[in-house]
Amino acid sequence: MPAAVSAVPARTTRLSAIGRLDPASFDLFLRLLGEALAATRDPERAVRTVTGDGTIDIHLEPLGPETRAVIETPDGAFGGRDYRVRITDLEAGAIPSPQTERTPERNPAPGDEAAA
């Protein structure tokens, strides 16, 4: 995981509690937040997803529609609805809950059936 993730929460926290992020951390955080929001089917329900490369688990739970979070960066402020968020580095040995694990099917290469 890139060093910039060190400023992103490793425990469940509210977006409004994050405070200030440096530009690299904010860029990464914004990408992760975007992936989670893109996976949302119902904006009033929690969502959990894993990044396309399988290295980061993202859990996002919306708080009330009247809530607000602001994250400060050197370039300005990013604001919107407040969420509880948990970002887990799967490469660091953390294990997501069983309902969120994704096990890709393995199609053995020809002649490799015994290894499957």
Task: Describe what you observe in this structure.
There is one protein chain. The protein is an alpha+beta fold and 116 residues long. The protein has one domain (3-91). It has 1 helix and 6 strands. It has one helix spanning 23-38; strands spanning 13-14, 47-50, 56-62, 69-73, 76-80, 83-89. The strands form 2 sheets. A 4-stranded antiparallel sheet has the order 1-6-3-2, with helices on one face. A two-stranded antiparallel ribbon has the order 4-5. Strand 2 (47-50) and strand 3 (56-62) form a beta hairpin. The radius of gyration is 17 Å and the shape is globular. The two termini are 29 Å apart. The relative contact order is 0.22. The model is unreliable at 1-9, 94-110 and 112-116 (pLDDT under 50). Residues 90-116 are annotated as: Disordered. InterPro entries: CHP02677. Pfam families: DUF2397 (PF09660).
